[in-house]
Write a structure and sequence with these properties.
about 500 residues, alpha+beta, Toxin ADP-ribosyltransferase, Chain A, domain 1, four-stranded mixed sheet, 7 strands, about 65% helix, TPR_rpt, repeat
Length: about 500
C-alpha cells in the first residue's frame, strides 16, 4: 500500500472504510502472513477483520481456494477502522470490524448526509461520501461530478452537492476551487427562487467565510461571517443556539487579527446564549470560559485569564470525568498562564497534570501540544537537552498521525528552531525554520500570515549571526506580506518594522 493511502487510514481511526472490489481473506493468520508482500517503496499492511457472524445480512462468503480456507468479502462492504499500529517487524497492523454497531454507524452517517443534501440519487452519493470519509478525494470527486452531470442545472439539490464538493476542495487546500464551488451553489439557490433568508444561503456564506479564514484572508472572512449572521438573525431569535457557531467563527477571526476586544465581545455573546439554554455546569460553557480566558492571556491579563480557566475547570469537574481530555486542555491553558507569568514550577505542574490524563487515553497525538508546552518552559529554564528531547517525542508522535507537509509538523519544527536559536546553534535554527517555510509553502497560500512569521524568524537568526544584510531581506519579506493581508495596526507589522529599524541602525 502506498504511504498516502495508509496515512488516510491512520487519520480515520473510528471512521468507516469501503472496499471497491471483491476481496479474498484468509482464516489462518499464519498463511496470510506468508502471503504478505514486502517492498522498499510501498508499506506492508496486514488486515485483521472482526466479523459478527450472528448477523443474518452478510457481506461475505466462506470459500476454499487451493485447499486454503478463506472468506470472500463482497464489493461495497463497509468496515470501521479500529486501530492502525506497526509491529516489531515493521508491518502495519490494521484492525477492521463489521457488526451491528458498525451498521448503525453507517446508517447514522447516511442519515446525516441525507439531512444535509436531501433525496438525491443515493448510489453515486453514498460511494462518493465513503471515499471522502477515508480521504481518497480523487475517487469521491469523480462520483460527485458524475452525480451532478445527471441532475438539473437549476435544482436545489445540485446546489447542495456543489457545497459538498467545495468542502472537498477545501480539505485538500484548494481554496480558490472550493470558493468557486460554493459560489456556484449560491447562484443555483438564487435561480431556484429560494428566499434570501433560507438557511442554505447562510450555510454557504459561512463555508466561504471559513475558507477565507483558513487561507488568512481575514477581512473577507469577516465579511462573509457577518452576511451569515445577518441572514440567520432574520429567521432566528437572537438567543438561538444555531447562532453560536457563527459568533465563534467571528471571534476566531478577530483573535487572528489581534482584535481581542471584539473577539471577547463575541465569546461573551456565545456565553449568554449558552447560559440561556444549558445548565451552568454544561461542558460547552466550560469551552467558552476557556476561550475567554485565552483571550485575556493574549491581552497580557494573566490574573483574569486564570480566573476564567479556573471557572472552566470547576464546570468540567462537575460535568465530566476527571480524566476527560477537555480537563487536560484546561490544565494546559492554566499552564500557559503560569508560563506567561514566569511561574515555571506551577506551569510544569499543570502541564504534567494534562499529560497524566492524556497518557491514559488511547490516542498518543493528544500529548503533542502538552509536550511542546513543557519543552518551551524547559527552554526558558535553559534546560535545552530536556526541551529538545520532548520536541523529538512530539515529532515522532505527529509523524505517525499527520502527513509530513502538515502544518502541525511545521509547528514542531518552528519550536525546534526557537530552542536552537536561544541555545546559540544558529545553523540548526536556520535548518528548522527552512523546514517550516518549505511545509508552509506547500499547504498555505503564498500570502498566509504564518509565512510572514517564518520570514521574520529566519531574519532573526541571521540577525543573531551578524549577517544583517540577509536579516534585512527576510524582515522586509515579512513586512511586505503582512501589509498585504493584516490590518495596519496589527502587532506583527509593528514588530517587523521595529526589526528593520534595528538592523538598519546596526548597518549604519
Amino acid at each position: 500500500m502506498n504511504a498516502d493511502e495508509l496515512q488516510r487510514q491512520k487519520e480515520n481511526i473510528g471512521g468507516l472504510i469501503s472496499i471497491n472490489t471483491f476481496l479474498l481473506t484468509r482464516i489462518d493468520q499464519t498463511i496470510a502472513l506468508e502471503e504478505l508482500s514486502y517492498s522498499n517503496v510501498l508499506e506492508s499492511v496486514f488486515y485483521e477483520i472482526e466479523i459478527d457472524t450472528s448477523i443474518t445480512t452478510k457481506p461475505y462468503a466462506n470459500v476454499t481456494v487451493e485447499n486454503k480456507s478463506g472468506i470472500l468479502l463482497s464489493i461495497g462492504s463497509v468496515f470501521r477502522i479500529e486501530s492502525v499500529k506497526m509491529n516489531q517487524n515493521g508491518i502495519w497492523l490494521v484492525k477492521l470490524k463489521w457488526g451491528n454497531d458498525v451498521q448503525m454507524q453507517l446508517k447514522h452517517t447516511l442519515e446525516l448526509i441525507k439531512n444535509k443534501i436531501g433525496d438525491i440519487p443515493t448510489l453515486f452519493l453514498t460511494v462518493g461520501m465513503l471515499w471522502d470519509k477515508v480521504g481518497d478525494y480523487s475517487k469521491s470527486d469523480m462520483y460527485y461530478r458524475a452525480l451532478i452531470e445527471n441532475l438539473p442545472k437549476d435544482n436545489m439539490d445540485t446546489g447542495k452537492l456543489h457545497n459538498f464538493i467545495g468542502d472537498l476542495f477545501c480539505s485538500r487546500g484548494d481554496y480558490s476551487l472550493a470558493i468557486s464551488q460554493h459560489e456556484r451553489a449560491i447562484a443555483i439557490y438564487k435561480t431556484s427562487l429560494l428566499a434570501p433568508t433560507h438557511h442554505l444561503f447562510a450555510y454557504t456564506y459561512g463555508n466561504i467565510g471559513l475558507i477565507h479564514s483558513q487561507s488568512g484572508n481575514y477581512y473577507a472572512a469577516l465579511k462573509y461571517f457577518n452576511i451569515t449572521l445577518d441572514t440567520l438573525l432574520k429567521t432566528l431569535p437572537p438567543n438561538h443556539l444555531d447562532l453560536t457557531q457563527t459568533y465563534s467563527n467571528i471571534a476566531q477571526v478577530y483573535r487572528n487579527i489581534c482584535n481581542y476586544t471584539l473577539s471577547l465581545e463575541n465569546n461573551k455573546r456565545i456565553l449568554e446564549i449558552q447560559l440561556a439554554h444549558f445548565s451552568p455546569v454544561h461542558s460547552s460553557i466550560a469551552t467558552t470560559l476557556n476561550n475567554i480566558g485565552s483571550l485575556f492571556l493574549h491581552k497580557s491579563d494573566g490574573i483574569t485569564a486564570l480566573k476564567y480557566h479556573r471557572k472552566a475547570l470547576m464546570v468540567q469537574l462537575k460535568s465530566l470525568s476527571h480524566d476527560h481530555l477537555s480537563v487536560a486542555n484546561t490544565y494546559n491553558n492554566m499552564g500557559l498562564v503560569y508560563h506567561f507569568r514566569k511561574e515555571y514550577t506551577k506551569a510544569l505542574d499543570n502541564f504534567n497534570k494534562a499529560l497524566d490524563i492524556q497518557q491514559k487515553l488511547t490516542e498518543p497525538s493528544n500529548m503533542g501540544m502538552t509536550l511542546i508546552n513543557i519543552a518551551m518552559v524547559q527552554c526558558e529554564k535553559r534546560q535545552f537537552t530536556l526541551a529538545l528531547e520532548n520536541l523529538e517525542k512530539t515529532l515522532g508522535i505527529y509523524k505517525k498521525v499527520y502527513s509530513l507537509n502538515h502544518p502541525t509538523i511545521a509547528l514542531v519544527y518552528d519550536c525546534f528552531g526557537s530552542v536552537y536559536q536561544i541555545k546559540g546553534e544558529f545553523k540548526m535554527a536556520l535548518k528548522m525554520f527552512e523546514n517550516v517555510l518549505k511545509i508552509q509553502s506547500q499547504c498555505f497560500p503564498n500570502n498566509h500570515p504564518d509565512i510572514g512569521g517564518t520570514y521574520n524568524n529566519l531574519g532573526g537568526v541571521h540577525d543573531d549571526m551578524g549577517d544583517y544584510e540577509r536579516a534585512l531581506k527576510y524582515y522586509y519579506k515579512a513586512l511586505v506580506l503582512a501589509h498585504e493581508i493584516l490590518p495596519q495596526n496589527h502587532p506583527d507589522i509593528e514588530l517587523y518594522q521595529h526589526n528593520i529599524t534595528e538592523v538598519k541602525r546596526k548597518l549604519a
